[in-house]
Amino acid sequence: MSPENFSLFGANTIILAVFAGAFAIAGAGRPQERHWRWWFAANTVLALALVGYGVAPLFPWAANVPDVMLVAGFALRWQAARAFAGRTTPWEIIGASVAALFLLAAIPYALSLHGLVYAAVNLVLTVLALASALEFWRVRCDGLPSRLALIGAYVLIAVSFAARIGQGMAGAADFAPGLQDDPMLTGHLIVGLLHTAGAGAFALSLAYERSAAELQRAASRDALTGLLNRGAFEKEVQRLLDGSPPRPFALVFFDIDHFKSINDRFGHAAGDEALRICADILRCNLRAGDVAARIGGEEFAVVLTDTDIGGACAVADRIRNEIAAAVVRSGRHAFSTTVSAGVSHSGMSPRDYDSLMRRADGGLYRAKAGGRDRVEAAA
Asked: What are the chain's domains?
């Protein structure tokens, strides 16, 4: 092997080993995050495959063993990508990737057409690299910046593998068994170096970005219902008030009627279930741009965008009817509940957060005083 290629093999191997250690440390104490284990296994197998290419000349009978290990490593990376997205794959699928290599390479190997064996190996590797890129692409809606960079790292190595398919097909009769030490290998190892560093760094970065996004989401959400909490809701309302041009919206307060009696009669678990059902009904009646929150013990608030006071009252009344018709089940208990609602609108004067909240709260008070299970607009 040329000194240049030997150095590139060494650099790739070291980077793979370093990131394998980083993945092992990142996954320590997090058994629920299975992708760390898959990434660690993939990098370890790939590092061993590169070591295998270095020692293969000493064992001519095992010249293709590193190829099998390389395919297994990229199959493990594909599984890591699926695990990161919350999907699972049976071990049989990973084994099928390695078996596909044997099936593709068996006949040409028996006929000593080592170029076709070389092409078959790179075909399987191309498919696995693109499959890994596709797994990250499928859930790109989270908007995390590192996701596109990670996809690019896999597409880059897939293109390099694909070019080697053509090399193997063109020189099928002239290839010797094992590694081809030529300028194309040098180029591929340089691309591999970029891929190895990029795939490791951006995998760690993507996991960090997702954890940060989840923490931010948890900080802005009510743990029981999954709706926004009061602080996050206030920011949303203020954002609409500060918008230019101003966007009309209605603010609706909902309060579960006689909620204390639900807890007293059926227990707190039943009260929690009633809160979850009300939250689900609110969520199902939202449009794009609308916002729902739990702002107190049994109090909810909804922002309905691009509507007038009459339209908001109609939506609030529909929600009230759906809640009244819902059956809450908790243990052996089954019961129904009602809500009262107050509605205010951003077009009322003065147009500020505190005034909007007071007017909606005044409508809610009138709904309660008027017999409950009703909707009242702000005066």
From this structure: 3-220 (1.20.1070), 230-377 (3.30.70.270)
